[in-house]
Design a protein that fits this description.
about 130 residues; four-stranded antiparallel beta sheet; three-stranded antiparallel beta sheet; about 5% helix
Length: about 130
């Protein structure tokens, strides 16, 4: 994996690592991460490609973001599904009424949901911590 400014293994000693938040546009959210690249156009909408604030074209799966369509693991049936088709990532924000659920980032070959909804925490979504530097 190439290093990005959002890499989970920062070069600066003592950098604070955290899971992104979701269901918000605040700093540290998936939306705030993706919006400058023109990828997230709302909390739960966007395209995998976009034009950044710098006028350049970006893709969620390419430099400098490198999100992977890793699929998800369903522990109830012990199966990996959607590998190569969908990418997911947990946020640090649990559902406000039921902490068995948490918000997440989801994307496929054409759409991004930076997420206004939640899913069962036992789904095997990968974690991608961001570093504040």
């Amino acid at each position: 994996m190439r290093s990005t400014k959002y890499d989970s293994l920062p070069q600066t000693k003592g950098a604070l690592r955290q899971l992104p938040t979701s269901n918000t546009t605040d700093n540290g959210s998936f939306y705030a991460l993706l919006a400058p690249y023109g990828i997230a156009t709302g909390i739960n909408s966007g395209s995998v490609t976009g034009t950044g604030t710098d006028g350049k074209s970006y893709n969620i799966a390419e430099a400098p973001l490198y999100f992977v369509r890793s699929g998800m693991f369903f522990s109830n049936i012990a199966r990996l599904r959607y590998s190569g088709l969908g990418g997911y990532g947990w946020s640090s924000k649990a559902d406000s009424t039921d902490n068995r659920y948490a918000h997440h980032l989801g994307f496929n070959e054409s759409n991004v949901d930076s997420s206004s909804h939640d899913d069962r925490r036992w789904y095997g979504f990968p974690l991608r911590c961001l570093a504040r530097q």
